[in-house]
């Protein structure tokens, strides 16, 4: 399929197989070998690039699991061209040299680009901004020193240029004839004639790949191609290509369906569009359910949160996705659409069995919603590493207590069964009972009635069950004001 | 003076701009082909039939190569006494073993095609664990190797207290960010140029020559840099380089290969995992009177470098402690898993963890502060003063069971065959040395007979105890723990004494080639490779210092077997020790010629000529360095020289376990504070304080980087990095999604690192000390801090936590419950 985007300030128009990754294309076609392949699955950050979309925000993304069509209409920056126009180093590059932030240097371009993205957005929570970049040499200390040193330094001009180019595209895309949208990459600097001239956009739909412009277009196309693979952020589907080496045709890329990305917070409910990214969800959850926000922060790095979507995290049906247990605990309802038909069901009912969901061919996740209530949610994520790790157990507890009595208990776990699942026996043991250590202990014992976890590389069955039980004890202790997390301990 | 300056890494600017080229970044000629191995899915057995039709028919495939197609040796082993096939001729030894080679027009096409083979195999029951290997007596060498002295059984029997137990120590994946990679470029006349991501270019040259059946002079290997090595690129790159060279020979086209990360995990070796059983007899102060270690080392399927790794584990079983009567028994066990290989520390960390566990356990058993128990057992400080002592007692010898390995081709000490791989650490000693008998110095002699001559740890510990506020914090932690129901904290101090030198004595040599051009610019090559440690920068600083010029004048280019031949691996922390000295020798050779020339011209004494500030000073005159270089050339004086260095004093008999294997020791001390959650076992490092000995540092900034990075790598090994195989021998943790190395937030929020201000007592390059491996073992303090936190969960008389490694949340919780159950 033909797509167009801006690469390092210059327009690019290419005809590509839909599932070619940006990383392979940069390295193999453009000889831009500064962007490295470390893992080819979005876990090490060596391939980090900056992508600026229609909202003008520069975001760090993993190029290894980013398919070229996802870039249509956006602006991409690679490590080779993040310096200032006079050729001077970017402030983060300069700081990395001065603070000895590189040793073998292989992870360095990815770090530098992630740091530049954070710098452009004024972020100073460096440990979180760099959680998706692995370094095996330095122990991170000099990298963090460099990141701190570059705080507040002037932002290079290309950040604004990329934003202008992407915004310009978005404007033209909106004005364009729906059947024949136009993309005119234009960096508006005036110096780059090629860019300013722009070009007619290709038709967005190829025989085996589609770029629907909104959810109506998607619904119609998907009904006609029910065997297609839908690609939202590609943080999971990307691995089907890079690791399982699958051919996915036909495919639809959903990133232009911005109407699916809306998050609506009313007095009665919170409704999250399927295409909302985890980064967007994180922002909305931080004031409403801070424990959920912290769960989101931990389970995907910045690069992953910028790509991964709520809909994708639900629709792939993984037993170890972290948002379903939290959403189930919040009493979420899932909204599905097929053609013009819509239906809703409790989120937990969507997960039928391992690899099997209650979803008809041609039906897709439109949104998930949950009632707005005072925050009583506690999310507990257990993994070998705190950041960017898949949960061995993820336990989410929404327990309301009034006058020392449990008035509502919704408890859901990931990693404990073939699907994300409610702990109904535990809930029943808690509800209506006094909120005491004895009640909690009784409920902990019932967990074995709800779950029979398995052994795998993340944990043994016995440990999973024991830790899941203890998570409830931790919620009780937490409510009683005890310190319950090693992350809260200051040295 | 450029030495000792904290200058940036030589490629720092190129790292941050993406300009630095790794093997996969090198522009390739049109028509370059890409390779992928087809891998065994089973761990043990024989393949009987390979149907490769679908592979050959796959899009983009140019050729498919099997063992029968190979033009030369089908052997990529670094151990001359063991045969390790590039492509299986039938035997299958582990899940992930290469069976055939796909040559295609793209990396992706090769990977896709490699999965299309139909392999028929007779599967046999794999041997996977230490216990299974022991039950089958499946091992390398004829039986356990045993070092020691005195009569530990009697000492233990006579001691007031017996402390015994066992620790399991997991392996570790290197996770170099740049995976294994090689590129072969066919030349005229059948020659081959190979770019390899390797710590050992000479080894690559040797194995490629064998694979092509050509002499070594027909193969030239270049290594500009690696994206991390950590030991994982000492021998594990052989297969890719040989595959590329063979495919390039057979197709006549350039061939490139890089492992996808999952393939890299599944194919290549890792750190050896160990179980160490211990039995110690101690007095009331915790002083060790007798100690017996039994080290069970899981080597995986091939011998690779396992013998010297296991030897080094034995040689670090004492760490910093005087063991008057000791026996160390080492079992080198063979299993149907990836062949374990070199990894930073090379067995030393595992051996050292054994004795540190003993110290911790003894302290717990006697209710004493672990730091005091450690101090009580330290080697004597400034031991040169000590005199006398008993002659060494011959080591205990186990009965020799039958030789197990069906593939063993020869015995230790066999005469050197020209095809033997002399520069590999897996090589045999061609001639068994007879180290001169030396007298035992009580309190100072190691179990292997080397006297610890500069034991500075007591002073280092004293200083770190003070700067880290160890005592006050330990008291505050006890108070805090008493008040906290769920989280507990722990603190521990552990020392490091690490032996520096290749234990295979003949490898302790290095060469260099230095040119001065007529414009005064300098070109430097040596046999060491750059993997991020800053070797090139350090050695360039040496060269600049010798000529009294700025380091910018010194050009560093790729390590090249055509420039400096017959090199040892850049390993054993030896890089700057060996190559710094070789470069110094080459520079001094040229400098002496220039000094003589200038002195003659000025009628001065050559000894008075000085090279400083970019000028050559003679008498009252001085000349720009470049003018002297030009004038010397005009006077027909050679401006090029080789340099050579061999480490003095070392001699070692690895069979008897006696001699001086190490030129000197490098020291370090760490205090780590950690916290655990007793409900889930989650744990975190809160603070680390480190004092490390680099002698007189060649570059304090680079040395600091090695210390910080080594410490974190060590804590990763002992806390979160867990390798898991299933019951059929398939590695289940084969990517960063399932195998977790420390991330940014895992570094302790307070992280204080300082360099000890000493100098090496031995005549090393500018009196510096090696720094590559030793800091990794500072991470042992993290495991001991976690053990301390777990112990805080128990009341009086509670059992010892006996925390195994890695201390994942699951293991910590199990230890907490063990301690609380009593």
In terms of quaternary structure, what is this? heterodimer
* Shape summary of chain A: globular
Largest sheet geometry of chain B? 8 strands, mixed
**Which chain pair shows the most residues in contact?**
A-B, 89 and 96 residues
Mean pLDDT of chain B: 94
Distance between the termini of chain A: 54 Å
* Coarse morphology of chain B: globular
Number of helical stretches of at least 4 residues of chain A = 18
pLDDT < 50 runs, ≥5 residues of chain A: 177-204
Helix proportion of chain B: 25-40%
Overall tally of structural domains of chain A = 4
What fraction strand of chain A?
15-25%
Radius of gyration computed on alpha carbons of chain A: 23 Å
Instruction: Give the helix tally of chain B.
Output: 19
Determine Rg of chain B (CA atoms, Å): 27 Å
| Distance separating the two termini of chain B | 63 Å
The chain-level structural class of chain B is alpha+beta
Can you say what the CATH homologous superfamily of the largest domain in chain A is?
Answer: Beta-grasp domain
Largest sheet geometry of chain A = 5 strands, mixed
Q: Which stretches of chain B of 5+ consecutive residues score pLDDT under 50?
A: 383-416
Molecular structure report:
The complex is a heterodimer of chains A (491) and B (822). Chain A is α+β, with helices and mostly antiparallel strands and 491 residues long. Chain A has 4 domains: 2-79 and 158-188 and 209-253, Beta-grasp domain (Ubiquitin-like (UB roll), Roll), CATH 3.10.20; 91-149, [2Fe-2S]-binding domain (DNA polymerase, domain 1); 258-371, Uridine Diphospho-n-acetylenolpyruvylglucosamine Reductase, domain 3 (2-Layer Sandwich), CATH 3.30.465.10; 377-479, CO dehydrogenase flavoprotein, C-terminal domain (Enolase-like, domain 1), CATH 3.30.390.50. Chain A has helices at residues 22-28, 91-98, 108-120, 126-129, 141-149, 157-175, 193-197, 215-224, 237-242, 278-288, 290-299, 302-307, 310-315, 323-329, 347-350, 424-430, 437-450, 461-479; strands at residues 2-7, 10-15, 48-52, 58-62, 75-77, 209-210, 229-231, 251-253, 263-265, 269-273, 333-338, 341-346, 351-353, 356-357, 363-371, 377-382, 393-402, 405-414, 421-422. In chain A, strands 2-1-5-3-4 form a 5-stranded mixed sheet. A 5-stranded antiparallel sheet of chain A has the order 9-10-15-11-12. A 4-stranded antiparallel sheet of chain A has the order 16-17-18-19. In chain A, strand 13 and strand 14 form a beta hairpin. Chain A starts with a strand and ends in a 12-residue tail after the last helix. The model of chain A is unreliable at 177-204 (pLDDT under 50). Chain B is an alpha+beta fold and 822 residues long. Helices cover 27% and strands 22% of the residues of chain B. Chain B has 19 helices and 29 strands. In chain B, helix 6 (201-212) crosses helix 7 and helix 14 (535-547) runs parallel beside helix 15. The termini of chain B are far apart. Classes of the chains: A alpha+beta (491), B alpha+beta (822). At the A-B interface, helix 1, helix 2, helix 3, helix 4 and helix 5 of A face helix 1, helix 3, strand 27, strand 28 and helix 17 of B.
């Amino acid at each position: 399929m033909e797509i167009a985007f801006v690469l390092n300030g210059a327009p690019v128009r290419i005809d590509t197989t839909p599932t070619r990754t940006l990383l392979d294309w940069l390295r193999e076609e453009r000889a831009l070998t500064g962007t490295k392949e470390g893992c080819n699955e979005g876990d090490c950050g060596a391939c980090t690039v900056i992508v600026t979309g229609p909202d003008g925000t520069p975001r760090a993304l993993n190029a290894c699991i980013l398919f070229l069509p996802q870039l249509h209409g956006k602006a991409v920056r690679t490590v080779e061209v993040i310096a200032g126009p006079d050729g001077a180093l970017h402030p983060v590059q300069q700081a990395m040299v001065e603070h000895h932030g590189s040793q073998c240097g292989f992870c360095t371009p990815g770090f530098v680009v992630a740091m530049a993205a954070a710098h452009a957005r004024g972020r100073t929570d460096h440990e979180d901004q760099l959680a998706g970049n692995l370094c095996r040499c330095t122990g991170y200390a000099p990298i963090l020193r460099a990141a701190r040193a570059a705080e507040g330094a002037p932002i290079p001009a290309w950040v604004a240029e990329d934003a202008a180019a992407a915004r310009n595209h978005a404007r033209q895309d909106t004005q364009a004839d729906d059947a024949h949208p136009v993309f005119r990459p234009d960096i508006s600097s005036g110096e780059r004639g090629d860019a300013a001239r722009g070009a007619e956009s290709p038709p967005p739909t190829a025989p085996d790949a589609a770029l629907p412009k909104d959810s109506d277009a998607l619904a119609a196309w998907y009904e006609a191609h029910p065997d297609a693979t839908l690609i939202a952020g590609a943080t999971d589907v990307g691995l089907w290509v890079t690791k399982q080496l699958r051919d996915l045709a036909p495919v639809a890329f959903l990133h232009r369906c911005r109407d699916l990305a809306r998050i609506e917070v009313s007095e009665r409910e919170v409704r999250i569009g399927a295409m909302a990214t985890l980064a967007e969800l994180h922002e909305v959850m931080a004031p409403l359910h801070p424990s959920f926000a912290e769960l989101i922060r931990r389970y995907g790095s910045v690069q992953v949160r910028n790509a991964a979507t709520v809909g994708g995290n639900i629709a792939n049906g993984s037993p170890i996705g972290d948002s379903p247990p939290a959403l189930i605990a919040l009493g979420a309802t899932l909204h599905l659409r097929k053609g013009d038909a819509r239906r809703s069901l409790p989120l937990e009912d969507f997960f039928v069995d391992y690899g099997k969901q209650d979803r008809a061919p041609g039906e897709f996740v439109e949104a998930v919603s949950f009632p707005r209530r005072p925050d009583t949610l506690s999310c507990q994520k257990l993994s070998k590493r705190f950041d960017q790790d898949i949960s061995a157990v993820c336990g989410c507890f929404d327990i309301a207590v009034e006058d020392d009595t449990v008035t509502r208990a919704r408890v859901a776990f990931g990693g404990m069964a073939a699907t994300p699942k409610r702990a109904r026996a535990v809930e029943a043991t808690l509800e209506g009972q006094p909120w005491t250590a004895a009640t909690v202990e009784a409920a902990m014992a019932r967990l074995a009635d709800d779950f029979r976890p398995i052994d795998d590389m993340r944990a043994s069955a016995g440990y999973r069950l024991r830790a899941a039980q203890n998570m409830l004890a931790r919620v009780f202790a937490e409510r009683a004001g005890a310190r319950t997390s090693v992350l809260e301990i200051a040295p | 003076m450029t030495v000792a300056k904290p200058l940036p890494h030589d490629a720092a600017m190129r790292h941050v701009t993406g300009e630095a080229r790794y093997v996969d970044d090198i522009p390739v000629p049109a028509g370059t082909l890409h390779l992928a191995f087809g891998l065994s899915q089973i761990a043990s057995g024989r393949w009987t039939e390979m149907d490769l039709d679908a592979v050959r028919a796959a899009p983009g495939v140019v050729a498919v190569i099997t063992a029968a197609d190979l033009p030369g040796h089908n052997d990529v082993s670094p151990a001359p006494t063991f045969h390790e096939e590039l492509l299986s001729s039938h035997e299958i030894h582990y899940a992930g073993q290469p069976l055939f080679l796909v040559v295609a027009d793209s990396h992706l096409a090769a990977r896709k095609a490699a999965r299309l083979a139909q392999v028929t195999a007779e599967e046999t029951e794999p041997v996977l664990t230490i216990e299974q290997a022991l039950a089958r007596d499946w091992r390398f060498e004829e039986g356990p190797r045993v070092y020691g002295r005195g009569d530990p059984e009697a000492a233990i029997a006579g001691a007031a207290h017996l402390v015994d137990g066992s620790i399991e120590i997991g392996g570790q994946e290197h996770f170099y960010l740049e995976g294994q990679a090689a590129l072969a470029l066919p030349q005229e006349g059948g020659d081959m140029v190979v770019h390899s991501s390797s710590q050992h270019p000479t080894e690559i040259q040797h194995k490629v020559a064998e694979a092509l059946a050509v002499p070594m002079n027909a193969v030239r290997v270049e290594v500009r840099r690696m994206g991390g090595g950590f030991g994982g690129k000492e021998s594990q790159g052989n297969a890719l380089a040989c595959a590329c060279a063979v495919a390039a020979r057979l197709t006549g086209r350039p061939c490139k290969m890089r492992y996808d990360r999952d393939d890299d995990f599944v194919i290549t070796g890792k750190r050896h995992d160990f179980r160490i059983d211990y039995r110690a007899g101690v007095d009331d102060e915790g002083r060790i009177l007798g100690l017996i270690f039994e080290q069970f080392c899981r080597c995986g399927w091939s011998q690779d470098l396992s013998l010297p790794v296991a030897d080094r584990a034995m040689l670090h079983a004492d760490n910093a402690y005087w063991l008057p009567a000791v026996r160390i028994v080492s079992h080198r066990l063979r299993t149907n898993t990836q062949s374990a290989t070199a990894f930073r520390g090379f067995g030393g960390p595992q051996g050292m963890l054994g004795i540190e566990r003993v110290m911790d356990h003894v302290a717990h058993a006697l209710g004493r502060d672990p730091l005091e128990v450690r101090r009580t057992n330290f080697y004597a400080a400034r031991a040169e003063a000590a005199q006398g002592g008993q002659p060494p007692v011959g080591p205990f010898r186990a009965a020799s069971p039958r030789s197990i390995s069906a593939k063993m081709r020869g015995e230790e000490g066999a005469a050197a065959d020209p095809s033997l791989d002399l520069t590999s650490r897996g090589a045999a000693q061609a001639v068994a040395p007879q180290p001169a008998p030396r007298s035992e110095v009580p309190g100072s002699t190691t179990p292997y007979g080397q006297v610890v001559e500069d034991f500075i740890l007591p002073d280092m510990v004293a200083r770190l105890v003070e700067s880290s506020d160890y005592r006050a914090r330990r008291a505050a932690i006890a108070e805090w723990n008493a008040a906290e129901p769920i989280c507990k904290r722990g603190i521990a101090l552990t020392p490091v004494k690490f032996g520096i030198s290749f234990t295979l004595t003949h490898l302790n040599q290095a060469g260099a080639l230095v040119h001065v051009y007529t414009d005064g610019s300098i070109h430097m090559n040596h046999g060491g490779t750059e993997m991020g440690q800053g070797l090139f920068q350090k050695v360039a600083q040496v060269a600049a210092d010798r000529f009294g010029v700025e380091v910018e004048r010194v050009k560093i280019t790729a390590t090249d077997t055509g420039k400096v031949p017959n090199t040892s691996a850049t390993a054993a922390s030896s890089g700057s020790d060996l190559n710094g000295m070789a470069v110094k020798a080459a520079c001094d050779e040229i400098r002496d010629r220039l000094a003589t020339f200038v002195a003659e011209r000025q009628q001065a004494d050559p000894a008075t000529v000085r090279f400083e500030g970019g000028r050559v000073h003679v008498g009252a005159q001085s000349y720009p360095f470049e003018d002297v270089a030009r004038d010397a050339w005009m006077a027909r004086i050679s401006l090029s020289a080789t340099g050579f260095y061999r480490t003095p004093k070392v001699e070692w008999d690895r069979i008897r376990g006696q001699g001086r294997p190490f030129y000197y020791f490098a020291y370090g001390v760490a205090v780590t504070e950690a916290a655990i959650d007793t409900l889930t076992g989650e744990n975190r490092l809160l603070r680390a304080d480190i004092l490390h000995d680099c002698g007189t540092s060649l570059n304090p900034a680079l040395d600091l980087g090695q210390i910080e990075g080594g410490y974190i790598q060590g804590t990763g090994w002992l806390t979160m990095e867990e390798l898991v195989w299933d019951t059929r021998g398939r590695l289940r943790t084969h990517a960063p999604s399932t195998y977790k190395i420390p991330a940014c937030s895992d570094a302790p929020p307070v992280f204080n690192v300082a360099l000890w201000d000493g100098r090496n007592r031995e005549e090393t390059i500018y009196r510096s000390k090696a720094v590559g491996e030793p800091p990794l073992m500072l991470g042992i303090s993290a495991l001991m801090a976690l053990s301390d936190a777990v112990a805080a969960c128990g009341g009086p008389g509670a059992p010892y936590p006996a925390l195994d490694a890695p201390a994942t949340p699951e293991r910590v919780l199990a230890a907490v419950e063990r301690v609380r159950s009593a």
